[in-house]
Amino acid sequence: MPIETWYDDDAGPMVRPYTVTQGRTRPARSDLNMITMVMALSSEEHPLLNPEHSAIMAACQVPQSIAEVAAAVALPVGVVKILVGDLVDRGLIAYSQPYRGTANRALLRDVRDAVSKL
């Protein structure tokens, strides 16, 4: 039976999440969640941002949810929420919450009926 060997070089560069967030484990903003929509307010590169913040800025050139941004930058959602909060506080990213009002049942029925006729 062959012995399996793991090498650090095979894993590539790795930075622990607590390093990326400077030890923070919770976002400073409680209003950011996985479905919060975020968008960069500028396409300019900011030289003072760390690589993870820059990657998030690049991923947010079109409106996306925080979950989509996390997938795009290959970081855990919790880490991305903390970093997005940093960028919001710096005025570099705008965000909005999805609509959570009550559904208009009549409108939903009309849409369902129209779609079923297609």
* Gyration radius, rounded: 20 Å
Strand order of the largest sheet: 2-1-3
Shape, per Cα inertia axes: elongated
Order of helices and strands: HHEHEHHEH
The stretches of 5 or more residues where confidence is low (pLDDT under 50) are none
Biggest sheet details: 3 strands, antiparallel
Strand content: 5-15%
Helix-strand makeup class: mainly alpha
Query: What is the tally of helical segments?
Result: 6
Global mean pLDDT: 84
What is the number of strand segments? 3
Helix fraction by DSSP (H/I, runs of at least 4): 40-55%
Instruction: Give the distance, in angstroms, between the N- and C-terminal Cα atoms.
Output: 60 Å
Quaternary assembly: single chain
Describe it.
The chain is mainly α and 118 residues long. It contains 6 helices and 3 strands. It has helices at residues 8-11, 17-20, 51-59, 66-73, 77-89, 105-116; strands spanning 37-40, 64-65, 93-96. Strands 2-1-3 form a 3-stranded antiparallel sheet. α3 crosses α4 (66-73), α3 crosses α5 and α4 (66-73) crosses α5 (77-89). The longest helix is centred in the last third of the chain and has 13 residues, at 77-89. The N and C termini lie far apart (60 Å).
The gist of it:
By secondary structure, the protein is mostly helical. Helix content is 42%, strand content 8%.
Summarize the SSE layout with pairings:
Blueprint: H1 8-11, H2 17-20, E1 37-40, H3 51-59, E2 64-65, H4 66-73, H5 77-89, E3 93-96, H6 105-116
Antiparallel strand pairs: 1-2, 1-3
Which key phrases capture this entry?
118 residues, mainly alpha, 3-stranded antiparallel sheet, 8% strand, elongated
